[in-house]
Every structure is written in C-alpha cells, then in structure tokens.
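Suppose a colleague, Dr. K., hands you the sequence of a protein chain of 296 amino acids and asks what its three-dimensional shape might be. Before reaching for any lab equipment, you can write down a predicted structure in token form. Begin with the sequence itself:
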Amino acid sequence: MTGWREPNHEWAVILAGGDGTRLREFSHKVSGDRRPKQFCEFFGGKTLLAHTRDRLQPLFLDENIFFVLNHAHRAYYVSELADVPSRQKLVQPLGRGTAPAIALAVLTIMGRDPDCTIAFFPSDHHYRENSIFQATIDRALQLATICGDRILIVGAPATYPEVEYGWIQPRPIVPPPRLNALQHVSRFWEKPNLVQARALHKSRCLWNTFVMVGSGEAFLGLLGATVPHLLAAIGDWFCTPDLDRIYREIESIDFSKEVLSAAPERLLVLCDGPSGWTDFGSPQRARDVLDTYAAL
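The predicted structure, expressed as tokens, is then:
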C-alpha cells in the first residue's frame, strides 16, 4: 500500500447476500445442493467468496473487512466465515436487493468511523489477473480522498457487446480512456438490448463492475439524493434495533437501477486495467471461466 493511503480509515464491504437465482441450476450441479453461487467451489478448491477475500487481503486490514449476508444462508456462511468476528458480519433478515445492503453497511461503518473511505465488492467476480485489479483498487482508494462527494465506479474495458451487464457511458468517450484514468459519467445503461450494446461497445463504453469506492459522506449523499426513504428506514435501526421489522416493511431496491442510474452527476468512473474481469452472472460466463482452468 502506498503512503497516500490511510488504512485505518479504509473499509471493504463484500456483498454476499444474494440468492444467485440465475446460476442456481449450474451451482446445484457443482455443489450438489441449492447454495448460492458465492458459497460454491467452482475452481481452485475455494468458494467465490473465499477468492474474493484472498483478493482483498493485501489491500485492507483484516478488521476493516465487512460482509453483508442473508440470514437464509446461515448454513453456508457460518462455517465459511467462522474466523470472522460477529461485529464484521452484517446479517440481513431478508433479501431486499443491493440498495438496502449498501445502506446498512454505510450507516454501520459511518457509526464507527465518520472519516471512513468505503469500497464495495460483489462476491461473485473472477479476475484473470488479480494483481492488476489490486493496482486499480489501490489507485481508487488514493483518489477517493480527493474526490469529495463523488463516488468512484470501476469500469472494465468491454471486449464484446454483452447484454446482461450494465454499461457506463463516460464523458467524453472519444478518445478511449487511459487505464486508471478518471472520467465523468454521462449515463448508465442497465442491460441494454443487442443493438444498444453493439453501439456502446463501438463507442468504447465500459462495463459496470459494481465495484465502488468513496467516502462515507459521499455514499450518504448519494443515497439521500436518490432513496431518502430507504436511508431513513435503515437509520431507524440504530434508534430502535428491530431490523426484522424494517426489512419486512421496505421494498426491494436495486442500487444500479434506482441509485446509480438516477444520479450520474455524483459519480466518476475509473477504467480498470486488463484484469480479465467477469462475473458469474450466467451459466455461460461461468463455463467460460471454468474452461480456462480446465485447459491449464
């Protein structure tokens, strides 16, 4: 880690509460049961969640890594995260989408460290070159301290017109961004059709990896500007600790669709290097990754 950073104030949040619905049948073939994909050992003798932890370990203090989980998955995470103190596990009573999970983590960490920088990481990603990804996150953590109320989104260089990914349209988009260069966000495209995806690919737009870095205050500002009712509901938990009731009453909210897409002016995009990013969002992408290991 470089001298520009303050590790004590840097927090990682691994989002591990999803049900992995689209990959359920494929995961079942691998694991023999209905566990979500983040708890499956697809390659390397480790789960996707364990690979995520390994990837982040050189970047963050162990005690500053949080996990957002779902109570329904307790049978899987209780052993997987047996070495993690309970204070670092944020267990949601129900699955309510990514926005409540992020709001819960932001408010919890802000309560412990008002000067925090927070980085969010999905637990179902794969990187061909971990060191390149780590260099991008190191850069993002440095930049977050000078970006004020802006959130940094890591965008991956698109290699084909994928219709199941979200896309980020930077401003300007020509010439193509340099690696590790910051740009403003013009628009988010959430799962475009094939014609749109081809146009975005041709314009050298970026895939949205959903890896985000920013100050706690910046995340609070973004949530407050887009889903203030959610922020207020989760905030009530700190006054009246009844998270079960709160989660029963709130609706599911997708962070990409209802937060990021609604406030591109509050975002910056950082172009990743050639890390070979992909996610396990579809059986075909999972097979593509596994085929690379089978060929070794």
